[in-house]
């Protein structure tokens, strides 16, 4: 593992090694296994692009029968005064009556997860919970409960393990933080 890396114009230093990430993923998977034992086939919904690596590692540690799907939040400029509009694409089948676990790489301001939850709740699932690898309590501005938080971090910008800086860095297996 390199201590310092450069992506585009910025330097990043190592913050969380892969082994620590694995421990946090195991701990959150253990909680989900306990909470959903006996629940009829829960559905994991990963939010692309960032969640692909977390989902891959998390799902291997889940010990009940499950289904898995990925969605994307598409942004476009709306014609209404609210400006940016985000809509969820990729979820084709019905989730009515299903137990859904949304899998995110990071919840920062909460803007994305709020859009996601509003759309999912409208589809009348039996339950929806959020499982995020990283949560930034100092940045979060929304009311959506984030039940499963593998790790909490400060307001710093991180990359690696699915998270990008202008599309670079997603393939790194450790987490790096931007340096000043
Ligand atoms: O809580 P927020 O402030 O909304 O930030 C969190 C969101 O930002 C990232 O997605 P991004 O839009 O960068 O897309 P990506 O996953 O394709 O990188 C991340 O995957 C979350 O979805
Ligand atoms: N890569 C990356 N994407 C984010 N989206 C919201 N917060 C972050 C962050 O800290 N890093």
TrEMBL record:
Keyword annotations from UniProtKB, A to Z: Cytoplasm, Glycosyltransferase, Magnesium, Metal-binding, Nucleotide-binding, Purine salvage, Transferase
Translocase listed as a keyword: no
Molecular-function GO term, any one: magnesium ion binding
Catalytic activity: IMP + diphosphate = hypoxanthine + 5-phospho-alpha-D-ribose 1-diphosphate; GMP + diphosphate = guanine + 5-phospho-alpha-D-ribose 1-diphosphate
Pfam families cross-referenced by the UniProt entry: Pribosyltran
GO CC aspect terms: cytosol
Reported cofactor(s): Mg(2+)
Class of enzymatic activity (EC top level): transferase
Pathway the protein contributes to: Purine metabolism; IMP biosynthesis via salvage pathway; IMP from hypoxanthine: step 1/1
Keyword Protein biosynthesis carried by entry: no
Gene3D superfamilies referenced in this protein's UniProt entry, alphabetically: 3.40.50.2020
Phosphoribosyltransferase domain mapped to chain residues: 21-165
Enzyme Commission number(s) of this protein: 2.4.2.8
Gene Ontology biological-process annotations: GMP salvage; guanine salvage; hypoxanthine metabolic process; IMP salvage; purine ribonucleoside salvage
Compartments in which it is found: Cytoplasm
Family: Belongs to the purine/pyrimidine phosphoribosyltransferase family.
The protein, known as: Hypoxanthine phosphoribosyltransferase
Species whose genome carries this gene: Alistipes dispar
């Amino acid at each position: 593992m390199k201590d310092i890396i450069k992506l585009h114009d910025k330097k990043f230093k190592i913050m969380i090694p892969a082994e620590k990430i694995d421990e946090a993923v195991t701990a959150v998977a253990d909680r989900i296994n306990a909470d959903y034992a006996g629940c009829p086939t829960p559905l994991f919904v990963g939010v692309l692009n960032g969640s692909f690596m977390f989902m891959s590692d998390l799902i291997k540690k889940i010990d009940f029968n499950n289904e898995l799907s990925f969605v994307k939040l598409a942004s476009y400029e709306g014609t209404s005064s609210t400006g940016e509009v985000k809509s969820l694409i990729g979820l084709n089948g019905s989730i009515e009556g299903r137990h859904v676990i949304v899998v995110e790489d990071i919840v920062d301001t909460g803007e994305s997860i709020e859009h996601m939850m509003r759309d999912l709740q409208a589809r009348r699932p039996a339950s929806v919970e959020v499982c995020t690898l990283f949560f930034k309590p100092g940045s979060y501005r929304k009311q959506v409960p984030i039940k499963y938080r593998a790790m909490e971090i400060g307001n710093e910008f991180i990359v690696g393990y699915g998270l990008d800086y202008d599309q670079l860095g997603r393939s790194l297996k450790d987490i790096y933080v931007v340096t000043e």
